[in-house]
Amino acid sequence: MTSYSPIEYLKIDIANQYGMALDKKSFSQRIAWVNRVKDLRSKTHQAEKPAQFLAAVMALEDALAGVPTGHLVGLDAPASGISILGMLVGCHTTSANTGIIGQKRMDMYMQCTKAMNSLLTEDIVVPRGEVKDAQLPHFYGSKAKPKEIFGDGTTMLEAFYLAQESVAPGACFMMRELLSSWQPYALAHRHTLPDGYRSIVPVLQQCNAKIEIDELNHATLTYLYDNNIGSEKGLAVAANCVQAIDAFLVRETSRRCNYDQEQLREVLQTLTDNARHMLPCAAPEIEAISRKYGFLSLRGIEFINSDTVLRFSMDYRNELIALIQETLAKPSFPILTIHDEYRAHANHINAMREVYRDVLVELADSRIGEQIIQEVRNDPSYTLTKFSTDLGDEILKAEYFLT
Which residue in 76, 105, 182, 305 is deepest, having the highest Cβ count within 10 Å? Predict the structure, then answer.
């Protein structure tokens, strides 16, 4: 991962807020564009986000003048839903086309557009905007939206589906596995996350009731409401599971960036003081979850104190010691997250990118996809055969996992 100076991150932020496809360029190209513009403020009204653009320009002016700024620089996770689906099954193709691996700033929607147009005759050219509008809901199980955009039973619709399999085969596979996990007439679908959080999503059906109002001369109206009633089929599992993992990425990244140094040092001391002792008891729930998922969450520190430490296995304690030491090696700093956008002060963007990358590596190496499906289906015999087992190694060398 290439590191940049705080000044350079402010320039990257200026280019991102300006838009006009600059956010699809490499970081060095964005910096170079800012360097070429003699009067940045004069570009404000041309920017796609004028207020944010001007704020970034003012932050750069302050920084260059030696005036402290509290401006936060934001970087997005590219095509995060598709990226997560691909990572769960270790798909290099999906990850390369979203930019999770490799050295180039990738645009999954443009990659799909190119693949789709290559399958069509020269007199049919599908624009990127239409592909994106269909691709996003497609990976959450929608069939209606692609049909709405490309027509039912058309050559374009067929090309759209073939393009998905070409640019994101792992994401397509994982989407189908999740969609097939719907439990007929269940009142809710539930699973845990590696940090012990639980996702419980009730199945809601829209119902209506006719209401008569005596005081209004017996006027009637139809009241629509959601009721917790199971259904034989449904599409929500894919979206709900992916969004739950996305939220977990936010929580885990935030824990490792904005940590309580005193708390971590206290827990570290407790662990090291008790490194060679343990009690003969069942592993606490947070350790059992970590083992099932193959992912060690920093949330484990919340359960460690002098009274509980000996209940954890020596392996778990040693792994937690290593994670705490790795976390303490970087500064603690606040971050702000808005869905899949991560914001921090320009002084800390390098550290934020490193932390987020490391969490992605651990996610790719984990058994999260298999475990979630086991729990949603209530089928501990389910196994997920990954496309590869070395995706984490490739993510570790990547550049544009945040853009």
Answer: 182
302 inside domain: yes
Which of 318, 231, 322 minimizes the C-alpha distance to 275?
318
Tell whether 20 is covered by a domain: yes
State the pLDDT confidence band at 122, using cuts at 50, 70 and 90.
confident
Q: Which pLDDT tens digit goes with each residue over 221-274?
A: 999 999 999 999 999 999 999 999 999 999 999 999 999 999 999 999 999 988
Asked if residue 19 lies in contact with residue 49, where contact means CB atoms within 8 angstroms, the answer is yes
Angle at 191 between CA 186 and CA 355, to 5 degrees: 150
How far is residue 299's CA from residue 252's CA, in Å, rounded to a whole number?
8
Residue 371's contacts (CB-CB under 8 Å, 6 or more residues apart) are: 191, 192, 292, 293
Q: What is the pLDDT of residues 331-352, one digit of tens each?
A: 999 999 998 899 999 999 999 9
The answer to whether 290 and 197 have CB atoms below 8 angstroms apart is no
Domain boundary among 29, 47, 68: 68
- Domain contains 247: no
Last residue of a domain, one of 313, 332, 351: 332
**Token reading at 310:** 């000996």
DSSP string for 43-89:
GGGGSSSHHHHHHHHHHHHHHHTT----PEEEEEPTTHHHHHHHHHT
What is the CA 143 to chain-centroid distance, rounded? 23
Give the pLDDT confidence of 97-121 residue by residue, as tens digits.
Answer: 999 999 999 999 999 999 999 999 8
Question: Does 230 reside within a domain?
Answer: no
Q: Is the pTM of this model over 0.70?
A: yes
Structure tokens at 244: 């739950």
Q: Please, which residues have CB within 8 angstroms of residue 1's CB and are 6 or more apart in sequence?
A: 353, 354, 357, 398, 399
Total count of domains within the chain:
2
Q: Domain limits at 33? A: 9-68
Contact 229, 205 (CB under 8 A): yes
Using only C-alpha atoms, the chain has a radius of gyration, in whole angstroms, of: 24
Q: How far is CA 200 from CA 12, 189, 240, 299, in A?
A: 39, 6, 10, 20
pLDDT one-digit tens code per residue, 158-194: 999 999 999 999 999 999 999 999 999 999 999 999 9
Q: Which amino acid is present at 133? A: D
pLDDT at 335: 97
Residues 399 and 103 sit within 8 Å (Cβ to Cβ): yes
